[in-house]
């Protein structure tokens, strides 16, 4: 059991605290916003109840058990005192992260590993030199208590033992860590997701299809095959000559990178910012917590079904 400090109790932070607690670690959770920290307990309890009900967490994990495994601390110094792993999950701005890393340099134990959950920032230049040997990125996907992929990228001066230690911890928790040799913005999955996002926003802005039609194409087309085959195994089954011909035809031109979307800008201006606001691309009436629970229940069912179905991995030998 490791002593883990999670800095930031928002959307990812409270969920990561739950993940590490379920993984058998003692967690201290902190946030500079008192209201965010106060809400975290209820959010963790709600997610835990869904996991227990779905069979993805031990049945004996109660709210009382959770309160012992994850303690909340308004003071940063108290949260990182004695920490072996410090998970940074604060706002995605260089200035805020740099300020936090400076604080951690003064407060955290010298041997603590600092793991940033940044989605796209190269945080290593923001981390004090004295912490570089034990600094890395461990990027999770939401909701992290159901999505097992974790991108792990060592800093340019990170000691191999620190990197391997985190990789081993994640594997022991049942996660799927993907270790990259160097930092690339977006890693692997987020880069692919960004390309999809650019295309679907273009299709929407150009009036080619509606959000429901685009989602239907993904759900009933791409998504059915990807969990079992991925991209390259799918190409093998289709035949690489076809892939070669499609590339040679040069029939696809990626949309220009505009840095904005007319449709998205309009929705945000109208206050349609997503489920928490009651509307986004779709209308979402009702309690947001109930909607997130409904999402999680479906993800649990899908994850359990995939365990039974399996993938093509193991039936092949990669080149």
In short:
By secondary structure, the chain is an alpha/beta fold. The chain has helices at residues 13-22, 34-53, 63-69, 76-80, 94-107, 160-172, 189-205, 211-229, 232-238, 240-249, 262-269, 288-309; strands spanning 3-7, 26-30, 70-72, 85-88, 113-116, 135-140, 149-154, 176-179.
Descriptive account of the structure:
The protein has 319 residues and is α/β, with parallel strands linked by helices. Helices cover 48% and strands 12% of the residues. It contains twelve helices and eight strands. Strands 3-2-1-4-5-6-7-8 form an eight-stranded mixed sheet. InterPro entries: 3-OHacyl-CoA_DH, 3-OHacyl-CoA_DH_NAD-bd, 3HC_DH_C, 6-PGluconate_DH-like_C_sf, 6PGD_dom2, NAD(P)-bd_dom_sf. Residues 4-181 form the 3-hydroxyacyl-CoA dehydrogenase NAD binding domain.
Secondary structure layout:
Blueprint: E1 3-7, H1 13-22, E2 26-30, H2 34-53, H3 63-69, E3 70-72, H4 76-80, E4 85-88, H5 94-107, E5 113-116, E6 135-140, E7 149-154, H6 160-172, E8 176-179, H7 189-205, H8 211-229, H9 232-238, H10 240-249, H11 262-269, H12 288-309
Parallel strand pairs: 1-2, 1-4, 2-3, 4-5, 5-6, 7-8
Antiparallel strand pairs: 6-7
């Amino acid at each position: 059991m490791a002593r883990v400090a999670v800095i930031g109790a928002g959307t990812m932070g409270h969920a990561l605290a739950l993940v590490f607690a379920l993984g058998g670690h003692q967690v201290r959770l902190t946030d500079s916003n008192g209201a965010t920290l106060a809400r975290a307990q209820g959010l963790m309890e709600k997610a835990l109840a869904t996991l227990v009900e779905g069979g993805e967490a031990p049945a004996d994990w109660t709210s009382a058990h959770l309160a012992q495994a994850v303690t909340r601390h308004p003071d940063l110094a108290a949260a990182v005192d004695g920490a072996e792993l410090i998970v940074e999950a604060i706002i995605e701005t260089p200035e805020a992260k740099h300020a936090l890393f400076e604080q951690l340099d003064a407060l955290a134990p010298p041997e603590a590993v600092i793991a940033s959950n940044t989605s796209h920032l190269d945080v290593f230049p923001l981390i004090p030199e004295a912490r570089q040997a034990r600094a890395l990125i461990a990027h999770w996907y939401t909701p992290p208590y159901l999505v097992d992929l974790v991108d792990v990228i060592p800093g340019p001066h990170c000691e191999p033992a620190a990197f391997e230690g985190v990789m081993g911890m994640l594997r022991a928790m049942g996660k799927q860590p993907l270790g990259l040799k160097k930092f690339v913005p977006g890693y692997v999955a987020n880069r692919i997701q960004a390309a999809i996002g650019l295309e679907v926003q273009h299709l929407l802005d150009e009036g080619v299809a509606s959000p429901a039609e685009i989602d239907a194409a993904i759900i009933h087309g791409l998504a059915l095959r990807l969990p079992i085959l991925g991209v390259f195994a799918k190409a093998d089954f289709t035949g690489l000559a076809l892939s070669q011909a499609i590339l040679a035809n040069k029939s696809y031109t990626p949309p220009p990178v505009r840095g904005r979307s007319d449709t998205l800008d309009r929705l945000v201006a109208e206050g349609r910012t997503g489920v928490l606001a009651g509307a986004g691309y779709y209308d979402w009436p009702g309690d947001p917590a109930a909607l997130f629970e409904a999402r999680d229940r479906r993800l649990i069912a899908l994850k359990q079904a995939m365990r039974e179905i399996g993938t093509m991995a193991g039936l092949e030998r990669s080149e």
